[in-house]
Amino acid sequence: MTRRAAVAAISAVTVLLLGCSAGARTGDEPASAPTTGADAATTTTTTATELLKSGTEFIDQMSFRSDVDIASQITTLAHTDIPHKRADSTLSAFGRVTEIRMIDDEVYLKTELDLPGVGQEWMKLDPARVPTDFAMSFAPGRNDPGGSARLINAIVTARADGPHITGTIDLTRVGAGNGINFRPGPDGFPDGVRSNPFSATLDADGRLVSFSIPAANGMPNATLRYSDFGAPVSVARPQGAVAAPDALYPQLGLSG
Question: Pairing mode, if any, of strands 181-182 and 196-202?
Fold first, then answer.
């Protein structure tokens, strides 16, 4: 897979691109007889993964900033305050910008993308018509613009060394949602993506502050960062927003 093809195979959901499915997973490898070494590795992975899960508990508890960077071509900056139901995000993809604002149950969107039947003014969306993989919500499990849970759930092996966690991740299991997404090319995923390296860092309070996936196995690099914990988040309702047209909703998220 070429570099250009690899970049096209990875996307943030809010780019509003229609994508293909993640592809079928292969069968499980034959189980080997338990050994002391294998048990120790399992314990290490479980412990490290639990540290990462605990490190994302702040999402439901306080405001925060999240930054997603994919190959320096797709970036997302979001400020989220779940307790007060306020959020905004700005996504830049190949020179085009999409903005989203959320206030209580209201969702507003403005995009510079040339979407058929859709203007470039501020639009007010009907949350009930937004596809589930677009996941613009304050509800638990759907409220993280960084998509950390999908990354953590796709971990294969992990080891913690103080605040630093390293290991491997199965990119075919990340699935679709806000944040980092991996999509196969026409010939499927490149070899090796089921054991792709990753690294993560926790801060002094045990919060996840970075999750990095380096370029490898034909896929580009991707980074998720969290910061500005507890900082005020102020979001204004756009003036003159119009009702989103019917043509917008089928173009949200990743299909299939």
Answer: unpaired
Q: Could you read off the pLDDT of 159-205 as tens digits, one per residue?
A: 999 999 999 999 999 988 888 888 888 888 888 999 999 999 999 99
DSSP letters, 139-178, are STTS--TT-HHHHHHTEEEEEEETTEEEEEE-GGGS-SSS
Task: Report yes or no: 127 and 104 within 8 Å, Cβ to Cβ.
Answer: no
Kindly provide the b/e burial profile for residues 182-212, where b requires at least 16 CB atoms within 10 angstroms of the residue's own CB: bbbbeeebbeebbebebebbbeeeebbbbbb
Mean of per-residue pLDDT scores for the chain: 83
What digits encode the pLDDT tens for the residues 33-80? Answer: 333 345 556 669 999 999 999 999 999 999 999 999 999 889 999 999
* Residues, the chain: 256
Q: Where are the beta strands (DSSP E) in the chain?
A: 10-11, 63-70, 74-81, 86-93, 96-103, 106-111, 123-125, 155-161, 164-169, 181-182, 196-202, 208-213, 222-227, 242-243
Other C-beta atoms closer than 10 Å to the C-beta of 33 total 5
Q: Shortest CA distance to 175 belongs to which of 17, 1, 20, 6?
A: 20
Burial of 83 (0-12, 13-18, 19+ CB in 10 A): exposed
Element (H, E) at 248: none
pTM recorded for the entire structure:
0.83
- Whole-number Å distance between alpha carbons of 40 and 85: 42
d(CA 17, CA 23) in angstroms, rounded, equals 17
Q: What angle do CA 16, 102, 79 make, to 5 degrees?
A: 85
Q: Are 82 and 143 in contact (CB under 8 A)?
A: yes
Amino acid (1-letter code) at residue 141: G
